[in-house]
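Justification of computing resources. Each target in the renewal requires a structure prediction run like the one illustrated here; the chain below, 316 residues long, is used simply to show the kind of job we budget for.
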Amino acid sequence: METEKFFLLRIVTENKSLKLLALVLAVITWYAIQGVINFEIDLIDVPLRIELDKGWAVLDRTADEVDILFKGSQEDLLRLNRDYVEVLLDLRGDDIRGVTELTITPDMVRVPAGIRIVDIRPNRISISLDQEGAKTVPVKVEMKGTMPDGYEVEKVVCTPAAVVVKGPLQRISEIERVRTVPLVLDNRHFSFDERLALASPSEHWTAQMEPEKVKVEVTVNAHTATRLISGVDVHALIKSNYGAGLSIAPARVDVTLKGREEALARLSAKELNAYVECAGLEPAARYELPVRVDVPPDVAVSSIEPSTVNVTLDVR
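Resulting structure tokens:
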């Protein structure tokens, strides 16, 4: 017995330098491990999803989202995709009446293995339930932005024009319509269509909408204006070797144009090509011919006054 005590005493008292080295190495190893596994990341506004029995809906709750502090290795935290992180409160099968206060625990958070949850803020919420109801309401297309100068929205068609909204009965009864997420009008020069999601009718409770998106078709037109250009010379289209004299009466016409204001403002009488087609006409005859006017692609001819002129061919 004395021999064993002596042996243990020697182990404790001798080789102090080796024991000190071992202690230092252990401390260094511990800090190295902590440095690897103790990275942190704080995710803000993690969605809070509540599962309920069929026929029930959340009437009120004190939070829709929570902030969560995660800890783990750098490699594990890099795999943490916030799009797949959520908090699930499964209340199916629970008899919840009135206002209920619930505690959010780490096991309610869906995250990859190896990641620890250090803190959840807030970690308690209050909810109240109501029977679920449904109501069909029209959809209003929400538009924002400004159409480019010279353009306007002529027509907006939403398909479907009405959707079914589901939620707590007390809230559903108050809804008159639902809106789309904003449709941006900036830089829209042509007609277009888009699929738009529906905006929640309230920030304080969650609604389900069927369908969740609608098709919006927008007809865009340019602002049209009119402009009268007087005294436009009328020319004859005729073969250059035609051996006859030609006279046009009247030799000038007034042309009314329509189109975008900026396009009309750029035009003058000299830039318009008014003409009569004289190919195939017989000499020593008089004709009444329609006047035609060539205009740029973004301008149209509204009227020509007079619309016809007298053309006389004289034999030389």
